[in-house]
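Issue 218. Parser rejects a valid record. Input:
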Amino acid sequence: MVDKDKLAEARRRAEARDYGATARLARELLEQSPDDVVTLDLLGYALYFLGQIDEAESVCRRTLELSPEHAYAFKGLGLCLAKRGRIDDGAAALERAIALKPKWFDPYWDLSVSLVEARRYGAVFEVLRRARAELPDRAAEWDKMEKHARAAGARAR
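Output the parser choked on:
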């Protein structure tokens, strides 16, 4: 059983962007409950932002072993793979997160960012088209991303 107070503290640390403390607390929690998906999510999140991409990827994969339809783990895996230059695999994992939770903003945004960084501007605009259709209330963010992608594409020429 996960220590709810320690888990709450780990969440507070994550929200405060104290990734070292988040990772430490998550590891302590996993000593007691090694298969707790919520704790694994926090650990993977913290490791990604600590730049420990290989370990973050492993945590996401472990989460998916335990919960094969876990959208957050697919999102994290996609980010890890894209960060390592495996953009096609990363995009596929992010698309899986979108398929599992089509009304969730984050994987659309992360996929867009990853595609801009990979200089796949045409693909970005297709993701933004779908994102606008699913989440029209986030139009300002989609406009911002489109402007960013167009500017990046113009600089790349």
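Fixed in the parser; the record now loads. Residues 94-157 form one domain.
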